[in-house]
Amino acid sequence: MTNNQKGISYAVVTAFFWGFLAIFLKIAVQEVAPQTIVWFRFAVAFVLLAGWQLVRHPQRMRILVRPPLLLVFAAMALSWNYLGFMLGIHYTTPSNAQLIIQTGPILLALASVVLFKEKIRKLQLIGFIVASIGFVFFYSQQIKLMIGQEGNYNLGILLTLSGAMAWSVYAILQKRLVLTHSTASLNLFLFGFPALIYFPFVDFAPLLQLSWIWWAILIFLGLNTLIAYGSLAQALKYTQANKVSIIIILNPMITFIVMGILTDMEVSWIDGEQFSLLSLLGAIIILCGAVLVVGRKKRQATHK
Hints:
Helix content: over 70%
Order of helices and strands: HHHHHHHHHHHHH
Number of strands: 0
Number of helices: 13
Strand content: under 5%
Distance between the termini: 30 Å
Structural class: mainly alpha
Shape: globular
Radius of gyration: 19 Å
């Protein structure tokens, strides 16, 4: 297997886990408070990563004692990204939140132009316009279907957008930090800090009453965090960032397909989705615009 194939495989793993993430979060929030779920995800990821680093690279644990200030801000942003996304799912649906959270990479691309003076290409500009039209179209169609639930839907969309903005801030800071620190070291703090600040808001009593099925769901959510981010780091190691970005940004397709199947089956353990053909068209327009924004033009080979 070539490095490019390895990178694409790792990116697919990340997209797969993130595609199912929103669905499992929607299920879990039926029994566990949103802040407790977010804390559990960070706590499990931190404990497993810290255990691995203690055995293999104990020197990386030093970052927990004296973290760079930028890393603290990045961890604060990631903390809200997780909670904003969780609350967005709670008040809307997995597919809606999963689609809206894709504004994060789009905002990151825009920030790169403003902050890092990166040149904006014509296709990227078209992508911004297409995605914006798609969001307006998707929202206008979805709000018509949310009869009696407009307030919750709007709140969920706003919370998800705030989570996307927080992710773009985290990614911008991470872009600076990876120049001087290893990804594994950074992730130790990025997982540990949120677990610490959310700890006072966790109600442990309901957790003690959960059956093994609910515990399995929570453990999956915790492992999801570690596996998805670990696979993402490996994907970026083996292949180009634009290929990885395009594969990952399409993960809402997994959520849409699975939720469509579950809705058609009329399962009792998760609320079905409400989509019209026009709202699905809006979703496709958003994803097309996002792909244009994050994609990069390949360098032409030169012959000497």
